[in-house]
Design goal:
- With about 140 residues, the protein is mainly beta.
- The protein has one domain: Immunoglobulin-like, CATH 2.60.40.
- Helix content is about 10%, strand content about 35%.
- The radius of gyration is 17 Å and the shape is globular.
- The N and C termini lie far apart (about 60 Å).
- The relative contact order is 0.24.
């Protein structure tokens, strides 16, 4: 019987390419609803097609700041998108002009000006020693 510490060299190399990404969400304005998170490995599907995300999930807001973790994630370049779904209808509620009424956030905390930032402005490198990011939620309307 093998113990976890006695993995083969090949298995150890494979496991060392995986990590746990920790995302800290700050500035949530309340605990209503849920937070939807999507993690993309490229521009395909970014920012809102969670079906094309490498990881996604819906998380209740137990504490603020909210800490979310994705285990067993391959190291590489990613961009995360966040939606504070206060109405719990699984859609981003917007006003008549298309301005979000609910909170949104992006990795890298890019300035939201004239629309959603492209993948390259939200991308970050997930690597050993760089396994935690902080995303500040933005509420464009009261």
């Amino acid at each position: 019987m093998q113990h976890p510490s006695s993995h083969s060299p090949t298995l150890n190399r494979h496991l060392s390419r995986l990590g746990t990404l920790t995302i800290e969400l700050v500035a949530l304005r309340n605990r209503r609803g849920v937070v939807n998170v999507a993690l993309f490995a490229g521009p395909d599907g970014y920012p809102s097609n969670a079906e094309l995300a490498v990881r996604s999930g819906q998380f209740p807001i137990a504490d603020v700041p909210l800490i979310i973790q994705f285990d067993g994630l391959p190291y590489g370049e990613y961009a995360a998108t966040i939606h504070h779904d206060e109405t719990m209808d699984a859609t981003l509620t917007c006003n008549a002009l298309g301005i979000p009424k609910e909170g949104i956030g992006f990795s890298g905390n890019p300035r939201i000006w004239k629309g959603i930032p492209p993948f390259r402005r939200s991308a970050f490198e997930f690597a050993p020693g760089s396994e935690a990011i902080s995303i500040t939620m933005k509420y464009l309307l009261p």
